Amino acid sequence: MCARRMAEALHDVRDGAAVSQSPASQWTIPSLIDNEQLGAFQWRVLILCFVIALLDGFDTQAIAFTGPAILAAFNLPAGSLAPILTAGIVGMTIGAMTLGMVGDRIGRRPTIMLSLAIFGCATLATAWATDTTHILALRFIAGLGMGGSTPVLLALAAEYGPARYRGAIMTGVLLGLPAGAMLGGLLAVRMLPLIGWEGIFVVGGGLPLAMLALIALLLPESLYYRATRGDPAGQRYIAKVLSKIVTRSLPADARFMVPESAVARAGVRALFVDGNAGKTIGIWAIYLLNWVAWFMLLSWLPTVLKAAGLHAQDAPLGTVIVNAVFIICAIPLSLLLPRVDTRRLLAVMFAVGVAVALGLGFAGQRWTLVFMLVGVAGFGIGGQQIALNYLIVGAYPTALRATATGWSIGMGRAGAILGSAIGGSFLAWGGPKGFFLALAVPLIVAGIAVLSLKLRPAASGAEALALH
Asked: Which of 1, 4, 84, 128 has the fewest CB atoms within 10 Å of its CB?
């Protein structure tokens, strides 16, 4: 769940083009930042963004690794968890679409604080829920904050980093999401028998609320946002912050600006004309089906492992392992993708994912094999989250890529909701074996769709980052 949001959130960030000094005393903010090294002030911003993403990732996966305990506490069948899982993802989808716009209106910093307050309070309140209807409502509310925080965090982190480091910065901040899920799983393994599922939500809700004080003291506002307000106080704020970043002397009457975007956004209709229709349908299918499989796995893995006979307190280890392998694979994949044929790499990944799903279906209670296969799933089912955006580079001209990415991610969000909703039905129908065999189906179809695509030669890493 957290890992797929890496791919989703990258779409919401625009790279600021470096522009030379303008006449008189006008300066563009990115032209000043791009000429500097990362300093202590910028590292502070990036670390705070990473920690917020870490807490976000913890809360996002909290319902997955506490799911078996919640079902036992309320004496419910596994399928009863589906609406709760789905409610959180629907909330995240709405939050990602709405709080980004809020950030443009009231500023990045207050929006991040609002997001923390929303998912912190809702997660904390979950510990005192008396029935699953309450949990469902609270997970939806928490999802609003969790989904809304990531694009705003990324926008802020990207603005404070030089352009040459922007890809690494965004990847580093986003790795906080699976890292948070992994740490949450480790906490659940160690502490669930002692503090119960309620205690996990107390930790998951209390830490974001405590973090609010640090954010209020240490996190600066977006310089881009303050520049677009055009007020003298904003200009003074920008000059004060830039004095902590820029080593050169700036004139006292300097006025700071943000460069205008040079490319107009294309409409969705353009994705279906001039020979694009087949590619668009194929890419949408790949996004949809991969996110169905990824969310079906992440949302239900602890519950499925418990149903297979694993002790409830050990079931969250699946979440830990799959997120850990995803983190390990993320950076090498980011370096490899600009240099290889994305279509062929994705075909290999889907083939690995199918083999993993089938292997898990027949592994039974051979737990060493099960956890090895779960680890490989971090590459063969989750790794596509890193690679998918590179399909857009090879499929569309530059002017269509932002629109193509946005709509493809929209298809992925629909797949995430569907995957979380249907996992319980397959578990109830065929047990753990039926669940994993069903998991192979969207991966097989997605692999066929990948092989059907005809793309341009692999694009450069710079082109791929331009998507983001």
From this structure: 128
- Cβ-based neighbours of 258, under 8 Å, separated by 6 or more: 16, 28, 29, 30, 224, 227, 228
Residues 180-203: pLDDT tens digits? 989 988 888 888 888 999 999 999
Are 32 and 272 in contact by the 8 Å Cβ rule? The answer is no
Domains of the chain by range and CATH? 1-261 (1.20.1250.20), 263-468 (1.20.1250.20)
| Distance separating the N- and C-terminal Cα atoms of the chain | 19
Q: What is the pLDDT of residue 207?
A: 95
Q: Residue range 97-121: average pLDDT? A: 88
Hey, CA dihedral for 180, 186, 187, 188, is it positive or negative?
Answer: positive
pLDDT at 30: 85
DSSP 8-state symbol, 459: P
Q: What is the mean pLDDT of the chain?
A: 85
Question: DSSP assignment of 226-290, as one string?
Answer: HHHH--HHHHHHHHHHHTTT--S---TT-EEE-PPPSSPPPPGGGGGSTT-HHHHHHHHHHHHHH
Q: How far is 3 from 293, CA to CA, in rounded Å?
A: 13
Nearest-angstrom CA–CA distance, 252 and 25 = 9
Report percent pLDDT > 90 for the chain: 44
Tokens matching residue 238: 């920008």
Q: In Å, how far are 275, 285, 325, 453, 454 from 395, measured between CA atoms?
A: 11, 14, 29, 9, 8
Please, are residues 32 and 202 in contact by the beta-carbon 8 Å criterion? no
Closest CA relative to residue 296, chosen from 418, 432, 139: 418
Give pLDDT tens digits for 234-290. Answer: 889 988 999 899 888 877 777 888 765 433 456 778 888 888 888 999 999 999 999
Residue 322 buriedness (CB in 10 A; 0-12 / 13-18 / 19+) = buried
257: β partners: 28
